């Protein structure tokens, strides 16, 4: 399919054989609980995608990552969503390694060498709570940081090797300071139990992860910059940029797979087919153009990324509406894949920050104020 040709070529270049493996089985194979997708991703060396080459990784940039996620999303939305959470964590660790003389480089090397998956324990998914608000409580005791708390849903819950979690600790001046703790999944006190009760995206392993008196060495806890209220520090800004673009690309890949079914129909209206294909292509160009915007990542870049994400979200909604109507009721009834993709693609709207929560912040930003993430 021409809309996916370039992305699939890139995927095959950086992770040889992965696209072929995913194409060999039907969609349902990769979308069920305990699906083999994450194991196949690890076997292909996927966890090393963003690790710099000097640390044994593939050194993938933002454009390459969006193309990889779009290609994977077209084969398995669950796998794309789950691995986006890994890449989000890795992008943050890579940024830390460039600005710190700590142990981050050892973690990067281990991820690349051993193909480790890193889950994210940030505040995504908690209604009424800001994404920057930690889900874990942390105390310092006998030279270690002790964590308690729950993250639900937490993608990669059953396949993760490490968990990155945001915590608050006293800063050097005594004021609260945001920090990131990296927790081995095998640590005593880490437990996982079922949480995801819908068939959509079940392969992402978005279950509940609980930490009970988990001890984390100080060298696995990285303190970030002090920030003003809900203003983002640089590390958080970098993480958001990667998260929003890769998640947008992942769902765009899934929507493109649905559009492919429409383009392959001999009975669908040609005008609708052209409109759907053009909408997909426009959204793809928007994602890739945003990913390749020159300059350092900062507040302005993040604002553009959020605009891109919400525009892609709207484009996907338009594609779903046009495609399902054009394919007709029989296609929806007879093909579980059409119904599944239509439902799974809607989930982009559920990822933070929700459009309605960002409305006043974006208005303030575009009228000269700072960009805040509530």
TrEMBL record:
Signal peptide: none annotated. SUPFAM superfamilies: Acyl-CoA dehydrogenase C-terminal domain-like, Acyl-CoA dehydrogenase NM domain-like. It holds the Pfam family Acyl-CoA_dh_N. Gene3D superfamilies: Acyl-CoA dehydrogenase/oxidase, N-terminal domain, Butyryl-CoA Dehydrogenase, subunit A, domain 2. Residues 121-214 form the Acyl-CoA oxidase/dehydrogenase middle domain. The keyword Transit peptide does not apply. Residues 36-98 form the Acyl-CoA dehydrogenase/oxidase N-terminal domain. Keywords: FAD, Flavoprotein, Oxidoreductase. PANTHER family: ACYL-COA DEHYDROGENASE, ACYL-COA DEHYDROGENASE FADE28. This is Oxidoreductase. It comes from Micromonospora andamanensis.
């Amino acid at each position: 399919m021409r809309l996916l040709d370039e992305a699939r070529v890139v995927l095959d270049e950086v992770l040889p054989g992965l696209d072929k493996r995913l194409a060999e089985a039907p969609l349902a194979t990769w979308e069920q609980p305990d699906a083999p997708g994450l194991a196949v991703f690890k076997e292909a060396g996927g966890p090393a995608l963003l690790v710099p080459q000097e640390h044994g990784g593939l050194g993938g940039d933002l454009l390459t990552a969006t193309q990889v996620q779009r290609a994977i999303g077209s084969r398995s939305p669950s796998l794309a969503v789950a691995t986006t959470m890994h890449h989000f964590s890795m992008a943050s660790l890579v940024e830390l390694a460039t600005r710190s003389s700590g142990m981050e480089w050892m973690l990067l090397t281990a991820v690349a060498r051993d193909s480790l998956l890193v889950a994210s324990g940030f505040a995504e998914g908690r209604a009424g709570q800001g994404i920057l608000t930690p889900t874990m409580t942390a105390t310092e005791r006998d030279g270690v940081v002790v964590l308690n708390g729950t993250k639900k849903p937490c993608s990669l819950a059953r396949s993760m090797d490490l968990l990155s979690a945001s915590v608050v600790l006293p800063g050097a001046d005594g004021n609260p300071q945001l920090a990131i703790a990296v927790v081995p999944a095998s640590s005593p006190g880490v437990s996982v139990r079922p949480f995801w009760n819908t068939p959509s995206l079940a392969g992402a392993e978005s279950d509940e992860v609980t930490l009970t008196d988990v001890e984390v060495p100080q060298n696995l806890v990285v303190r970030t910059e002090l920030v003003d209220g809900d203003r983002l520090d640089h590390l958080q800004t970098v993480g958001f940029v990667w998260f929003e673009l890769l998640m947008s690309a992942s769902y765009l890949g899934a929507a493109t797979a649905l559009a492919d079914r429409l383009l392959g129909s001999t009975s669908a209206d040609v005008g609708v087919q052209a409109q759907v294909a053009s909408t997909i292509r426009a959204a793809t160009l928007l994602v890739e153009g945003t990913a390749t915007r020159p300059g350092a990542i900062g507040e302005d870049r993040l604002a553009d990324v959020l605009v891109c994400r919400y525009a892609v979200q709207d484009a996907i909604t338009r594609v779903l509406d046009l495609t399902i109507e054009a394919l007709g009721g029989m296609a929806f009834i007879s093909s579980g894949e059409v119904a599944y993709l239509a439902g799974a693609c809607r989930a982009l709207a559920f990822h933070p920050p929700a459009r309605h929560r960002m409305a006043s912040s974006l208005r303030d930003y575009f009228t000269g104020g700072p960009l805040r993430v509530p």
